[in-house]
Write a structure and sequence with these properties.
Blueprint: H1 10-23, E1 35-39, H2 51-69, E2 73-77, E3 79-80, H3 84-97, H4 102-105, H5 107-121, H6 124-132, E4 142-143, H7 147-162, E5 166-176, E6 181-183, E7 190-203, E8 210-215, E9 226-229, E10 243-245, E11 252-257, E12 269-272, H8 278-287, H9 314-327, E13 331-342, E14 352-361, H10 364-375, E15 380-382, H11 384-396, E16 401-402, E17 404-405, E18 415-417, E19 423-425, E20 442-443, E21 447-448, H12 450-454, H13 457-460, H14 469-474, E22 477-483, H15 487-502, E23 507-513, E24 516-517, H16 534-541, H17 543-553, E25 560-561, H18 564-586, H19 605-626, H20 630-657, H21 664-684, H22 689-698, H23 720-743, E26 752-757, H24 761-769, H25 771-778, E27 780-786, E28 795-800, E29 803-808, H26 815-840, H27 843-848, H28 851-876
Parallel strand pairs: 1-2, 3-4, 9-11, 15-23, 22-23, 24-25, 26-27
Antiparallel strand pairs: 5-6, 5-14, 7-8, 7-13, 9-12, 10-11, 14-16, 17-21, 18-19, 18-20, 26-29, 28-29
Amino acid sequence: MTEFPKAYEPQSIEQKWYPIWETLGYFQPTGPNRPYTIVIPPPNVTGSLHMGHALQHTLMDALSRCRRMQGRRVLWLPGQDHAGIATQVLVERQMKAEGLKRVELGREEFERRVWKWKEESGGTILRQMRREGASVDWTRERFTLDPDLSRAVREVFVRLHEEGLIYRGAYIVNWCPFDQTSLSDLEAPKREVKGHLWHIAYPIKGSSERIVVATTRPETMLGDTAVAVHPDDERFKHLIGATIALPLIGREIPVVGDETVEREFGTGAVKVTPAHDLSDFQIGQRHGLPHVVVIDQTGRMTVDAGERYAGLDRFEAREKIIEDLAAQGLLVKTEDYTHSVGHHDRCGTPIEPMISLQWFMNVKPLAEVALQAVRDGRTRFVPAVPWTRVYEDWMENIQPWCVSRQLWWGHRIPAWYCDNEHVTVSRVDPAECASCGSKALRQDEDVLDTWFSSALWPFSTLGWPDNTEDLRQFYPTNDLVTGYEIIFFWVARMMMMGLKFMNDVPFDTVLITGIVRDANGEKMSKMKGNIIDPLDQFDKFGTDAVRFALASMAVGSNDMTVQESKMESARNFANKIWNATRFVCMNLGDPKGQPAAKWVPSDALADRWIRVKLNSAIEQVTRAFEEYRFHEAAQTLYHFFWDDFCDWYIELSKPLVASGEDSPEVRNARERIAYVLETSLRLLHPLMPFITEELWQRLPHEGDSIMVAAFPIVETGLDEAKSREQMETLIALITKVRNIRSEKNIPLQSRVKLHLAVSDKDTAALVNENSHHVKRLARVEEIFIADRLPALEEAVRDVVGGIEVAVPLEGLIDPEKERARITKELVRKEGEARGLASKLDNLSFVERAPRDVVDQARNRHGELIAEIETLRSSLGKF
């Protein structure tokens, strides 16, 4: 037979199989059966693989491989997002190193440069996905700026504009003064900032009374157009309708009553700056207040801020305004105050809420339909709690979506302006103005928010707006696997767009994963320097091991910590699979020409038991995949293969399987063990594709690849209870004798006598029938079964499963020496346990040490306590 290496070397195997799978077309959907579709959350073209990708791709690949083996017509569609801001920032950074600026190149030349970068350097993550074993259909790979997808984007924009759902208007947006663009909330995450809460007195005109407001941004007061109070606040009721002389500016502004004012915040009165705050903008709309812009797009004060402050940076103006207010006796007090401020996630600049003329989308009508689709169960979230409610909350409180971005890289807005400022929105570049016929047209400089094209991903990638075969076959998709942080920004928008343009939900199930954190539970980031590169983990432990470890940690949408101990355990499991298969193959001979192994009926307890255990594993793993409980699938596979198959069935079958004889009994034993192993490999394949393919090819099998072999199915009618119960009794007895040997330090070469008191006739018969297994696996010379144990002077006595056990020690050990040995070991372990307990009681250690280290200390302390109890019990048994 082909040489079977002793050592498992994952790198050579992983490099070998992926090109074969891809070349043979196994990743493409084939056959007449029911389709199964996943579209990959498109990673940024600027990105590289991180542990979050590795987790989600593992789960998507496991689902795809399982469904493919179950006979479904599987399409897992890959692609990338053009990542407007991220890509533009990256390329501009490269240009800066060359002394170039975007505006100097011009738009066309800049776009050519970005496309060149994309062709040369983009797509790193897609190449890395091959390393993961991701079974995506590369022939259908998409990019959000592909011509077909760009046509879909323009079609959606134009249709929504024709319906009045996309419009141009002035509204509050997140503005980055550094990158000169509007941002989504996701691109402007909040950071805790230590600042101040300034209390400022606003004089009431024609009165000596003053109204005090509290603000964290005094520079915006120059744009105030009102002060708002709650209409039921007894402190200020009498001032509603009064006029204020705005400090430092002198502009007259009213006091208005508005129910959104929080009476408990600050002084209970709030300044209203409609041009620089979303809440203030909404108050301004309700009360017809004017918009005064006092901070421009570069973050500097405008002429409307007054001559003294015009041209100053917003934070420089803040300091001068505070000084001037204090000088005029209007600064009542200053408090230290920590609050949340949005920062651009790319450059770190504090964002400026700003009223801006932008393109907006009224998403409320679409949100109502998308909300109902989840309530009707057409799309479900897993886990349902809390993510269904999170989705509903967002959709119920949805606001207009600012879809324009002041960038050059992306889908340019299909709107053109003539000199008369008429707007022409068109599917194709127009030759003249639709309103006045002017041929002097200029296209809008802005591009669409990256999430706009991503929202169309489930159907634009399948060929929409054309009625393609792919669209008819694979939409709606089945499972979406994504993180909870983009439920609103991506999942909700795909729901709205899918229902609007396809009249159907884009996916049946949304599987929400947690965040993969470092060993200390911290979110990984380049800034923190705690990034764990999955490629490094693949090199160290093997891809299959990393995949298996990630799946075993994927409990619902809980965040997980990366622990190398989990990777090591999974690597050891892969080694166990390799070694077990090597043993079986070495006793089967050359698999070439041999048909796949079939189950040969047997009355032997071990054979009946393993068949039941295998059937149970198939049932549990199948259900776990159906219910997206990947950790349960991993744990079931681990314990079945390692504990049941390797530790017991191989050992129980070894005398026949490894026999030098060529008899029907031996051949049948080999057939059975090969059957169990081959079935187990197929069960393991979705989580560990590389090692299972390599080993499956070395066994007798049917078909060209395990990828397209049938996923195991549950047998019905097996008598589970009796064989399980009997085998558990036998395993418990053998384990008990082994433990006695270990506890008493009985030399391996010494065979013991075993006395059993068994009152139940069936149990006695069970032990008698399987005495050869007990003797071989527990190293027992003779077994004596009676109704009661004989009188034995030096013996260890115990009870297991209703069986009284006694092992005579005479001639095997020196009782005094053994007692001394155990006592010495007990003292050593008690000392180690006290040391660990002291360390764990130290808050400094628990709070500052890496979480993995603390967890290891806790686990070791627990192990020591159990070992100490065992040693004490051993002393008591002399």
